[in-house]
Amino acid sequence: ELGIQGTVWVSFVVSKSGEISEVEVLRTPSELMKKEALKAFDRMPVWTPGKVNDKVVNIRYKIPIKFIPR
To answer: Cα(42)–Cα(4) distance, rounded to whole angstroms?
Structure first.
């Protein structure tokens, strides 16, 4: 709505049960974008947990969230 754009880098863990935890904003161009990215993670559904050698494990991800004006 404000016409701002940029990329917020977020690190998080998907637990063995698929829950999202340890959400951390690594880089952000603005506090407003940081707040919106964290809101998205608060509403995140359960994920499919990772596997290593057929064993379910916790796994850390680092992803970019791009904000693009409409």
So the answer is: 22
**Continuous H helices in 9-68:** 31-42
d(C-alpha 52, C-alpha 44), whole Å: 23
Question: How large is the average pLDDT for residues 30-34?
Answer: 94
Distances (CA, A) of 54 to 2, 25, 57, 67: 46, 30, 9, 36
pLDDT at 70: 75
Q: Say yes or no to pLDDT of 2 above 80.
A: no
pLDDT tens digit sequence for 36-50: 999 999 999 999 999
The whole-angstrom distance between residue 46's C-alpha and the CA centroid of its chain comes to: 12
Q: What is the CA radius of gyration of the chain?
A: 14
